[in-house]
Amino acid sequence: METVREKLNVSKAIEEKLEQLSEAVVFAEPSDLHTLGELHTKFQEIGTISGEILATKAKEAVKAAEKLIEKIILEEVLDANTSLDAIGRTVSALQEIVRDGKKIEDVDFPPELGLNGSNKDTSVDGSQSFLLPANVDEEIFIEFLSHQKADLQEMETMILNLENADNGEVIRDLKRRIHTLKGESALMGLTDVELLCHKTEDFISEVPVDQVIDVLLTVNDWLTSFFLTFSDNGKVPCPVDEILKSLVVDGVKLKPEVQKEKKEKEVKKEYKTPDKPIEEKEDLINEEAIEKRTESIQPQPDTDEIEEQVPIELDMDLTVDFISESHEHLETADLHLLVLENDSQNEEAMNAVFRAFHTIKGVAGFLALKEIGSLAHESENLLDMARKGNLILDSYVMDIIFESVDKIKQLIARLSDSIKIGKLPARDATLPALLDRIKAVISGDYESMEVSASPAQPTEEPESVENIVKQKTTEPEDNEIIVKKKQTPSAVQKTGSEIHQAVKIKETLKVDAERLDLLVDTIGELVISESMISQSEEIKKIGSASLIKQINHLDKITRNLQDMGTSLRMIPIRSTFQKMARLVRDLSKKAKKPIEFVMTGEDTELDKTVVDKIGDPLVHMMRNAVDHGIEDSPVDRQRAGKPEKGRVELRAFHSGGKIFIEVEDDGKGLDRDAILAKARKRGIIKEEDVLSDREVWSLIFEAGFSTAKKVTDVSGRGVGMDVVRKNIEALRGKVEIRSEKGKGSVFTIILPLTLAIIEGMIVRVGIEKYIIPTLSVITSLRPKPEDITTVVNRSEMLSFQDKLIPLFRLSRFFKIDEAEQDPTRAIIVVIESAGQQVGLLVDDLLGQHQVVIKSLSDTFQGIEGISGGTIMPDGRVGLIIDVDGLVRLGNKEGAVVAS
Amino acid sequence: MADKSGIAVFAKAGKYLTFKLGTEEYGLEILKVREIIGLMNITAVPRSPDYVRGVINLRGTIIPVVDLRKKFGMESTEDTEQSCIIVVEVTKEDGSEAIGVFVDAVSEVLDIAESNIERAPSLGAGVNTDFILGMAKIKDSVKILLNVEEVLTNNELIEISKVVVQSDSDIQK
User: Does the beta carbon of A859 lie under 8 angstroms from any beta carbon of chain B?
Assistant: First the structure.
């Protein structure tokens, strides 16, 4: 058995060759011997490398094509052009197999090749013919394989649980798993698995539970060994039909493999119309016909059937799972749709979107969520057409797909609400209209829809409208004229890397977040205990070299463990960024500003809590960038010498132990004068105040501060910026702004690497020690007497960088008696909170430390100026200063405290 | 636990941990006691009520320590070798919390029979008896059985802490 990787490589190579062929054939002339010679060589090459990748029949076709070219060259054919045409069709047929993952039986080879007329697949000879459809992403396939092992193990446990009496739940779960596997394997092109799963599903529903266990175990074993073959170390399992034989439903044996073609049709049909008996004659109906039939069976919005769309009894666990999974799927769909919008030929993105809809359809169908199911189904059909090259994804179609994603999101949100309140969701009023539009696109009736559905768009000349009206009234066949058919699927050049490593199957497991936190906490304890031991005086007294060596070793291990512990909670920020991509697209459409959106650093890892909470502030910042940052019209931009398309960039990166998230736009920039004028008007600053840029920018974080000339429905300048600041501060981060009028602005969020650990400066006041988060510290200095000014002998001010800033004594806030009273013998730490700088008088600096934050008991919740505690290296509790709280406190009672 | 009418819930018979505050002897239900630890470094928490000694590191968890002398309005004394912290488990609405109780000395664990327990007598207007479960007479001495939740409840502490902070700033003004 060859490894997966080799097979993928070969199938990729074949695909590439076919693509070159398809191009060459188009230009080939019967008289052009050179090109014909090249074609011949290409076919030969495919024949040589294909090995067992191609089914026998496909290989035969390749050979036959080779011969046909020979004949053309030797002028042995009657009509060279027809023959060339046949070669062309052979190439597309092969492409359909290799690239689109079509089954060999579904592909028609031109009769000119002189192949046997029967579509019998001769490759069925016990050896596994493995062909990964090239349109399936390799990573996705590996991912798929990765979780099979664990899934199958769980399935086995479930099967064994069936022996227990109360097994309704288990059966349902099992069915769902098999169903999911069926769907996934269908996408991966593993038809054997798909078939087996399908039959197993039927089997479970029709045979009493106690009789299925043995058979299910056999199925499970087969699947396990089947998947093992891909990871290089498994034996080839027996052909799937042997297993299928054991799946006897009501005494009817499944048909042998020779009739595979027919069976495949049945599978499709049975799957979609489970209640209809199979009729032999329908085997001849082609795929399209079946799909059309299926459509007609879909619940029509206005029939009575819709009344039952709400499942009377939802399986809570499954539904909740479904809701959370769907979110992921929809986000993936969103992201890939954005890719598709720019590059409608991107197969990878197309397939990703298709998969998302397909999975949702499958599970929704299983949970009897008809609204979601039917919408996902229709969208899937639509995408399938596009995937097969029968439909061009223009902006109207894209909008419909986006709308479908949104609608499914809505439906799922309502489902989740209704679960919470325990009531069934109401019917969605706008769904039927959307379904109709999708169906219209599928049936090719959509250009007319486009005009009628979007009257706001500039209308074309009256004649064309008339035409459309005419077309609408004419025979349905005429509609095909306006269906945008893609003539030839244009070649998509794969850029995948050529050098591959062996398949590595990643194993992941889901862990309860609470346990993980406990582990991280415990590691924190270990680190402290370890440092207490390694720094202990007694150990040093012993002075044994070997003991010290061992302690050093322990120290190293502990540090490693600490690093690992911190990384456990880290996840990439990708999901949040993906949402932003979608947001920018919508905003740019709404504001009618063309925008180029660039994301970098989606893989930057952040603490999970941060990733979850950063979304809200980012939404505000993106809105600001699009709505206010970018100029109102492309004309304005041109006038300013900038490209018409605005550019918004979202970046994430690590630097110096911190995480930076930046939102940059190349728009107008912040208007210093407008902000100042507004601030003066609102009395935030005085008329004569002179502010640095930095101080001016920080004004926009004031609540309700907006300089927008008109407030749009999306945002007013600065509205929401106070929310941004609050959210970021809650995450122990800060926001910085750089802006140049006319050039654009950069908003930078700076966050600590994790929430559990902060970098802190340890200060001493009297006998007490406190920790000031380093992120808030600007500098520390020993003041000269002339730096300090007293106001009415009470409040103290410090001259710092040519400005006067308030000076607070920590000892007075915290009533510490033994503190140094003479500022010139003490240290001033300049801290910043919400753009305001203050000096904090402490006795001494004791250095910097990474500390693990612990919450203080609820007893101390109301205490201002302290945000939490930590265990210091000496085992004592250290208190962490809440800089914002302290500054608030200082502003409130500064005069009192300084008295 | 006291009900709304202010009549203390009567103490149950069972094992009690007794400790000393000055000359008085008190008892805590043994089921509420998690452990007893000797004197250790206590970090003072600024701007907290004066009866809160501060916080300690109990194997990685930060717990507050309440000075029972201060809480009862008794005079402070120097810490001695015998001073110790009784860690008690206090049940609250949202789970339970460990709180350290700083006492002069721990005496013993007593098995108190129901016949030995009496209701707390009315002690006049100045003294709130809600926190007393009952009085136990053992031989010649009297042990005051404490309702630890009542003494330490979160709500009360917060109320008091607010009052204290408030009055502090009032005084300064």
Answer: yes
